[in-house]
Amino acid sequence: MLSKKTQYAFHALIHLAENQDKGPILISEIAQEKNISIKFLENILLELKNAGILGSKKGKGGGYYLMKPPKEIALAKIIRLLDGAIALLPCVSLNYYERCENCKDEAICGLNEVMSKVRDASLKILENKTLKDILTRQVTI
Amino acid sequence: MLSKKTQYAFHALIHLAENQDKGPILISEIAQEKNISIKFLENILLELKNAGILGSKKGKGGGYYLMKPPKEIALAKIIRLLDGAIALLPCVSLNYYERCENCKDEAICGLNEVMSKVRDASLKILENKTLKDILTRQVTI
DNA sequence: CATAAACTCTATAAAAAAGATAGACTTATT
DNA sequence: AATAAGTCTATCTTTTTTATAGAGTTTATG
């Protein structure tokens, strides 16, 4: 399960993407719109900024904005940034690998093999789907 | 990421499956073989027993054993039992659903749509792969 | 039937992670 | 100068995870 942090990040990014034309967006606006604690959201947006995903402007008329078009922001990147590994086991993680301490040889471990497949199946989606793909779908009347 | 509890459960089940012919297996044997704290493992095996996956025999010559053939024990079942939801978001979980508190309408939420796909991709593997599929692969000389 | 072996059960504790809050500071606009 | 807004660091609370303790129960067996 993704942490609240990552969940909030997605919702904030969605709001920013859907309001790109309006210039910098206030933290407080996002917090209110998405029902998130403003102080908690502050930390999250800052992390996204430090990772180069968001930009910000201080002072009056300031706020946060996307640094790249939504279609260039992969969902996997956000998850890894805020939650760490996407894989179900450390011994199968591409970015946060750790040796398995319970099995004798990962190369012949069947669990390792299956969990690698789960990782690949998830990544196939999360690496290719972007912020653009999770914007609110327009309902055609 | 799966909890240690679930990871240990998998390793314990693997050991039990690979030694099915030897009658009940001691907790202490599994703990030593798989490098797991014996007391922690005790709790895990008990949970697996209460869920009907393992059986046990008390007293001398006792221990734990599988209640079903390995090919009938799906990996998804073990994860759900010990870790809960497999989905990345509560609003997308089949067994542990919770309403999304940050979006206005799940039906048109793009995040919900993508995460449903991730869930399905993971479940396709985890519901179909069983304990039999994660046993140590025999290396043919 | 006594003994020892082994699982059972409940409680608790320690550690880590998650979630949230506080407040002083800096920058920018008007 | 005043105000609006992000920045930064620290701290705190709660929850979850991981682990341990110990008394209780069951069973085999000599």
UniProtKB/TrEMBL annotation, chains A, B:
The keyword Amino-acid biosynthesis does not apply. InterPro entries: TR_Rrf2-type_CS, Tscrpt_reg_Rrf2, WH-like_DNA-bd_sf, WH_DNA-bd_sf. Gene3D superfamilies: Winged helix-like DNA-binding domain superfamily/Winged helix DNA-binding domain. It comes from the Bacteria. PROSITE patterns: HTH_RRF2_1, HTH_RRF2_2. GO terms for molecular function: DNA binding; DNA-binding transcription factor activity. GO terms for cellular component: cytosol. Transmembrane segments: none annotated. It holds the Pfam family Rrf2. Keywords: DNA-binding. This is Rrf2 family transcriptional regulator. It comes from Chitinophaga silvisoli.
